[in-house]
Amino acid sequence: MDEKEIRRQLRKVRHKETEILTRSRFAKGVNLESILNKYIPDSLENTLNTAFREAFRLIFDKGSGIIGKTFNEQKIRSGGGSEAQAQKQWMTDMLLTSVEGTGLGLIGVGLPDIAVFTGMLLRSIYQTAASYQFEYTTKTEQVFILKLIEGALARGKRAEELSSEVDALMRRIDRENYDYYGNINEQIEAAAKALSDETLYLKFVQTIPIVGIAGGLSNPIYLNKVKNYADVKYRKRRLLIQQRQARDNA
Q1: C-alpha angle with apex 50: 199 to 153, nearest 5 degrees?
Q2: In whole angstroms, what is the distance from residue 157 CA to residue 155 CA?
Q3: Residue 218 carries which DSSP code?
Q4: Which end of the chain has a smaller Cβ tally under 10 Å, C or N?
Q5: For 185-211, what is each residue's pLDDT tens digit?
Q6: Ranges of the chain with pLDDT below 50
Q7: DSSP conformation class of 207
Q8: How far apart are CA 215 and CA 204, in angstroms?
């Protein structure tokens, strides 16, 4: 791909990025909040935070390699997987998390699906990372993934701030050979809070039999939101690398 084509592709991805940020800027909170607020236990937010936090830690410590074996990474990296196949796999993942969440909602169980949901969420990001030739198991890339999740779920001015932070982090990693060596817990906390804030009311609804169907059906919405955001950021990251390489070789 020559530099002219790279610039054209960058314009397209930045346009998509702007669309996502515009939706996030004007996004409103869950309408159920005002109705359900007095019924939600004070401890639920802490419980959700803890559940998401522990799910991230467990998967990063022991599960990333296992998740990586659930898809053909070599085929994805070589570009051998067709867009139709990728879409088919994504639809399967969406269906699984929807059925799993709805099933638990029917019996009045709203929290045990968090580990499964988090695994599905990370799996979709891992596939996206691999498709753009990026790693996902190192601590540095795990921090980047967590920042992506936080950014994807942000609203208002914070969405723009986090988008800039994601871009700054990708530049540090790819241009300055940044290698994370600190405590990853701070970014785990931020991503867990973003997820718990977004799902608080629907997870509460999911603990109520029958009504819980609404909570279960929300899982694919969040998955799709994060996946679209990750796709834009990883595509932008790859194009910026290709642009620098093209200029260096000119």
Answers
A1: 35
A2: 7
A3: T
A4: C
A5: 999 999 999 988 877 655 554 544 443
A6: 30-32, 35, 80-86, 88-90, 94-111, 205, 207-217
A7: T
A8: 8
Please check whether residue 106 is in contact with residue 210, taking contact to mean a CB–CB distance below 8 angstroms.
yes
Q: Report the 10 Å Cβ neighbour count for 11.
A: 10
The H or E element spanning position 32 is none
Q: Check: CB of residue 239 under 8 Å from CB of residue 12.
A: no
Token duo for residue 50: 């803890």
Instruction: Give the Cα separation of 193 and 222 in Å (integer).
Output: 14
Query: pLDDT for 62-95, tens place per residue?
Result: 877 778 777 778 888 887 443 444 454 445 554 4
Residue type for 35, please? Answer: I
Looking at residue 216, its pLDDT comes to 45
Per the CB < 8 A criterion, the answer to whether 154 and 225 are in contact is no
- By C-alpha distance, which of 223, 205, 235, 227 is closest to 104? 205
- pLDDT confidence of residue 39: 56
CA 31, 37, 41 angle in degrees (round to 5)?
A: 135
pLDDT of amino acid 100: 43
